[in-house]
Amino acid sequence: MPRLAPLAFAALAVSLPAQSIDLSVDGGSIGGTLQIRMAGGTPGQAGFIFLSLLPGPTPLSLIDPSDPRSLSVGFDLLGLTIASVLLVPPEIVVPPLAIPNDPGLIDGAMFFQAVTAPGFASLVDRISLPRAVRFGPPNAFRDRFVALANPRSFFPVIPGTDGRTLVPGGGAGALFAQIARKDTEWFDPISETFSAGQDMTIERSLHTATRLADGRWLVVGGVDRLNDPTATAEIFDPANGSFTAVASMVLQRAGHAAALLPNGRVLVSGGITDMNAPSSPLDPVYSITTSTEIYDPVANTWSPGPALRKPRAGHLAITRADGRVLLAGGVSWYTFIIRLPSLESTTDLYTPATNAIAAGPAMRQARAVPAITSIGGGRWLLAGGIGNLNLTQQGTPTTAAELYDEAANSFTATAAMAQARALCAAFPIGNNRYLVIGGGDGSLFAVTPLAGTEIWNATTGTWTAGPALTRPRVAYGAYATASGQIHVLGGESTGGVDLSTEFYFK
């Protein structure tokens, strides 16, 4: 790859509007490869990708005294800078770089940042977000002792606009006895540290966070500090890190589902409306609602949606390519002389154009709170979840797995997992494989956290054992990092709700 002086291609810049630049750096497993790609800028400009063993800051005044900005990488590896003229499309795609299979690299870091040049007012024009890659053994989880400040479970994860990730709220305690938090934490992948974010307007656990069309996030419901479901809602703005209270729902709810609609509104469905259990641990189940509500972020109003055909909590909301939303399964109840708990295999199909719900296809297995992941082509894998709930079996997990195909609008069975598990997550890990992480066995009222993982192969339709977590986890937070690793945070472990986090290396 040629190295170019910063001004070598100034004369080639054309009068086209500059695009923001994005830098992706995927990899980190020793013995694997590192994929580097820069996209954006103006055709005719020069693009530069800096590599460093240091996170900066490096003031750009070192090369342009008039530029007050800084880079988040050092200049220690300046001789390895990757540079090229930007053509159409404006991008630099680096051939895969082999990572030595050297255990001495484990937990080491490398930092990357891209720029374009020249600019109109300064030598450097656009600057990408910085990227960091930490190295680790392949197909393994690694605890790098990057801990949350506060223990939390049952929380969403929100990506920021600056490369950081926000962890809002969550709680300690049991599923039906939450001790909710209002504080939030930012994870910075460059410094690999957590720092305090702005508090939410109230404490929340078992809440949802839905990305709006304008990039803000609608945070809805959950239980408050008294473990009571709340009707309140707020909007998080990643641009400034702020939470702002918005109109409240008509009905309080926790363990509900939320989905963005094609018109920019948000459908909220089902949920538990009362966590009090004066006579039986199952009493919260009997408060699960059929109600739905729709939030309009422009008008800041809620309007009633159509009723679900069955009460649902812990159910799935699958947004289809045609804009309809499939509301699948969930914990429920029915009346036969007395109220009885149940699980649903039924689904409801919501159509935004008519604001109506109709019966959807039945699942192969009644379930709630399973792992779910898109496997491409309008199909989703559903694995595990609570698979049995009645007066004697109070929420036992299942090993069953199945596929939903939106084109056929049907569910088909696939092989079962080896371990029953619920309250877990699933992620693609490449080569048509999908990893289901940890989760819990036991029951809703006595969850046993699991350290085991399983990998489903979409080509063969079979499961194999995956690498173990460094500690058992259930009801944790998790997300795919910018470098393609999976970051697993908190959740309940042996001994209570946990502070620790760990990373999976593909």
Mean pLDDT: 94
Shape summary = globular
First-residue to last-residue Cα separation: 27 Å
The share of residues in helices is: under 10%
Q: Tell me the CATH architecture of the domain at 10-135.
A: Sandwich
Number of helices: 0
- Could you state the CATH homologous superfamily of the domain at 10-135? Immunoglobulins
Give unreliable regions as ranges: 1-17
What keyword list fits this structure?
disordered N terminus, Immunoglobulin-like, Neuraminidase, four-stranded antiparallel beta sheet, 0% helix, mainly beta, 506 residues
Describe the protein's architecture and organization.
By secondary structure, the protein is an all-beta fold. Among the domains are: 126 residues, Immunoglobulins (Immunoglobulin-like); 114 residues, Neuraminidase, CATH 2.120.10.80. Helices cover 0% and strands 42% of the residues. The chain is built from no helices and 47 strands. Strands 6-3-8-9 form a four-stranded antiparallel β-sheet, with no helix packed on it. Strand 37 and strand 38 form a beta hairpin.
What's the helix and strand layout?
Blueprint: E1 22-27, E2 33-39, E3 46-52, E4 58-59, E5 70-71, E6 82-85, E7 91-98, E8 109-117, E9 131-134, E10 140-142, E11 158-159, E12 165-168, E13 171-174, E14 177-180, E15 184-188, E16 193-196, E17 208-211, E18 217-220, E19 233-237, E20 242-246, E21 257-260, E22 266-269, E23 292-296, E24 301-304, E25 316-319, E26 325-328, E27 331-336, E28 338-343, E29 347-351, E30 356-359, E31 371-376, E32 379-383, E33 386-389, E34 394-397, E35 401-405, E36 410-414, E37 425-430, E38 433-437, E39 440-443, E40 446-449, E41 453-457, E42 462-465, E43 477-480, E44 486-489, E45 492-493, E46 496-497, E47 501-505
Antiparallel strand pairs: 1-2, 2-7, 3-6, 3-8, 4-5, 8-9, 10-47, 11-12, 12-15, 13-14, 15-16, 17-18, 18-19, 19-20, 21-22, 22-23, 23-24, 25-26, 26-29, 27-28, 29-30, 31-32, 32-35, 33-34, 35-36, 37-38, 38-41, 39-40, 41-42, 43-44, 44-47, 45-46
